[in-house]
């Protein structure tokens, strides 16, 4: 506790002060006296106490009557007598996202400063990243005299589950993390960051964590928000939290080994932000997109990068930094006022209306970004049919997509019978309304809330005529797993330093740090409510008034004793309640019980 003890001591019954100055000598004195005034022995009572709780005899009717007698009008506002406490607070959510080329240059101490106090660091690292960049990362921590423990964490999508989380938790325990001074470090792709972030948000109810994304999607999307999560069964990211990282550091040097397919996949998310918010970003994609893919944002000096003149490669690198800077900037502008997604009007949902359904319509699923792109291409057409986007502009969007190899055609988008149900499903989960962000020009958008089945029939018919729609072969031929490209050469690294000539560079001045500051409201009520399950009382029932359904986890002993009252209450209020028995003694308080509970939510379709 930051080098100080704080012992609350009563100075009278009902009043206290903190002591921060208790010494060994004082304890010696006091214990001596205490032994004299008290007969001190180990209290047998503690060991004899029953290990589990037993139920006492059932409530009798006269007990219940006694509750009712306190009021005599049949329908009682008990809280008036017994009090409701409204707790209203907010939890600060603040973090910084920093673009920092040369992050692992030993001369840079941006990262090291977080570990200055204990000189220890626990880092989860993607094994492929370790294989390729491990020696740099290791050398960095050695140069800063930080004892780092690197935990290899293979995190393909199919491992993104509670088992990986448990293994990660074990590593924290083994390390003996100092929860205040040793932010957990996550170095890897989106999956690894989601899992380590969730782990950090759960471990001891939350420890700080730092993200260093190494994939393209990680850089422009997965690392910069506050969402954490693991999959549960077939449900993607079903278990998760909204927890801000302490910091995010982005060094695009990791992109050198990212395959072109993966870059294209991430570019679709950038295309999204360009079409919604930033026409200059779109122009950069038009001008530099192909070369950015070929050279991995100016980092890959093989392939096309080998024959490209140094000045051009440098120009591509600069353009790449600007593309990423703009993409992160617009994304953070959209996310930061709505970190926990309370507001349903989100332009970042562009491409995510029909895209996710298309993504899962193939096995294995289509790359996420590609499915999003197909949705966006369709929406550009939808915009054109309403007379908002001009034909030339829509054509410009499609041309750019084609040149960057972002697939835009799929038979789904000429089939209103498949598209309409997806819209209806969205409507059901989003307070009875669909909100479809549609570009009205490149860099601007509006929400459509009035798309009908008939309109889809018309638009899809035309769309089929103007597009030659077929499943793009490219997608299926793409390699399923990623390969590493050749290692960084010394000349690659020198190029970083050459851009500046004073040896020690404040990169963030050139490339931007975003400080996200927000707060999450935490409000709830605690109410003493005698007669809570009296059918005449609707305090609880009102929470289920809309769907008339309720999922309840109930202790089996409680059920045995009070179940008939509880059941009768929900029946009286016409609420279809599913009661899940949940035997929860201390020894069951673990991830297995959590998983069983999650399954019940899935089965219920909450
Ligand atoms: N939390 C969020 O807001 C958010 C947003 C978008 C996506 N996501 C999640 O991100 C995940 C997808 O992330 P992803 O696209 O980064 O994929 P990924 O995490 O699965 O990584 C893909 C592969 O890239 C390899 N890899 C990592 N760095 C590399 C490098 N520098 N060079 C070469 N290979 C490298 C990894 O070993 C892995 O095999 C999904 O699970 C998705 O749900 C989360």
Automatic annotation (TrEMBL):
Residues 266-421 form the 3-dehydroquinate synthase C-terminal domain. Gene3D superfamilies: 3.40.50.1970, Dehydroquinate synthase-like - alpha domain (1.20.1090.10). Pfam families: DHQ_synthase, DHQS_C. GO terms for molecular function: 3-dehydroquinate synthase activity; metal ion binding; nucleotide binding. Its cofactor is NAD(+). GO terms for biological process: antibiotic biosynthetic process. This is 3-dehydroquinate synthase domain-containing protein.
């Amino acid at each position: 506790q930051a080098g100080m003890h704080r012992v609350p001591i009563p100075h009278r019954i009902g009043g206290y002060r903190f002591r921060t100055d208790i010494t060994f000598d004082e304890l010696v004195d006091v214990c001596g006296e205490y032994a004299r005034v008290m007969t001190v022995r180990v209290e047998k009572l503690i060991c004899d106490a029953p290990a589990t709780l037993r139920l006492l005899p059932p409530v009798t009717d006269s007990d219940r009557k006694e509750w009712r007698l306190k009021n005599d009008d049949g329908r009682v506002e008990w809280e008036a007598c017994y009090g409701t406490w409204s707790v209203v607070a907010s939890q600060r959510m603040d973090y910084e996202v920093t673009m920092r080329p040369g992050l692992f240059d030993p001369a840079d101490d941006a990262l090291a400063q977080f570990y200055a106090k204990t000189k220890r660091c626990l880092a989860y690292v993607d094994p492929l990243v370790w294989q390729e960049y491990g020696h740099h990362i290791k050398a960095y921590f050695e140069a800063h005299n930080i004892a780092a423990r690197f935990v290899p964490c293979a995190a393909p999508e199919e491992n993104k589950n509670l088992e990986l989380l448990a293994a990660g938790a074990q590593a924290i325990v083994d390390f003996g993390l100092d929860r205040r001074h040793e932010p957990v470090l996550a170095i890897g792709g989106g999956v690894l960051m989601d899992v380590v972030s969730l782990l950090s948000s759960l471990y001891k109810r939350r420890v700080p964590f730092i993200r260093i994304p190494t994939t393209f999607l990680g850089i422009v999307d997965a690392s910069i928000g506050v969402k954490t999560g693991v999959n549960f069964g077939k449900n993607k990211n079903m278990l998760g939290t909204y927890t801000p990282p302490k910091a995010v550091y982005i060094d695009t040097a990791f992109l050198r080994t990212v395959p072109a397919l993966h870059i294209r996949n991430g570019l679709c998310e950038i295309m999204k932000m360009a079409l919604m918010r930033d026409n200059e970003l779109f122009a950069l994609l038009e001008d530099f997109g192909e070369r950015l893919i070929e050279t991995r944002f100016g980092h890959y000096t093989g392939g096309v990068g080998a024959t490209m003149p140094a000045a051009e490669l440098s120009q591509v690198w600069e353009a790449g930094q600007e593309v990423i800077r703009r993409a992160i900037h617009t994304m953070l502008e959209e996310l930061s006022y709505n970190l926990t997604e309370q507001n349903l009007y989100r332009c970042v949902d562009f491409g995510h209306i029909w895209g996710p359904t298309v993504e899962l319509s193939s096995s294995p699923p289509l790359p996420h970004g590609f499915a999003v792109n197909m949705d966006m291409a369709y929406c550009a057409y939808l915009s054109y049919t309403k007379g908002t986007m001009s034909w030339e502009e829509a054509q410009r969007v499609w041309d750019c997509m084609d040149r960057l190899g972002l697939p835009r055609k799929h038979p789904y988008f000429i089939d209103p019978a498949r598209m309409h149900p997806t819209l209806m499903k969205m409507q059901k989960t989003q307070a009875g309304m669909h909100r479809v962000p549609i570009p009205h020009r490149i860099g601007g958008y509006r929400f459509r809330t009035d798309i009908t089945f008939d309109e889809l029939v018309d638009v899809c018919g035309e769309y089929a005529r103007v597009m030659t729609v077929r499943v793009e072969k490219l997608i299926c031929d793409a390699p399923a797993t990623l390969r590493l490209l050749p290692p960084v050469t010394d000349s690659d690294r020198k190029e970083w330093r050459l851009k500046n000539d004073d040896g020690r560079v404040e990169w963030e001045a050139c490339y931007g740090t975003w400080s996200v500051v927000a707060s999450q409201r935490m409000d709830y009520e605690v109410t003493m409510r005698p007669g809570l399950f009296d059918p005449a009382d609707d305090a609880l029932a009102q929470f289920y008034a809309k769907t008339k359904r309720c999922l309840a986890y109930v202790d089996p002993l409680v059920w045995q004793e009070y179940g008939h009252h509880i059941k009768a209450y929900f029946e009286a209020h016409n609420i279809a309640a599913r009661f899940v028995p949940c035997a929860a003694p201390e020894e069951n308080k673990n991830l297995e019980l959590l998983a069983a509970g999650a399954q019940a939510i899935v089965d219920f379709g909450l």
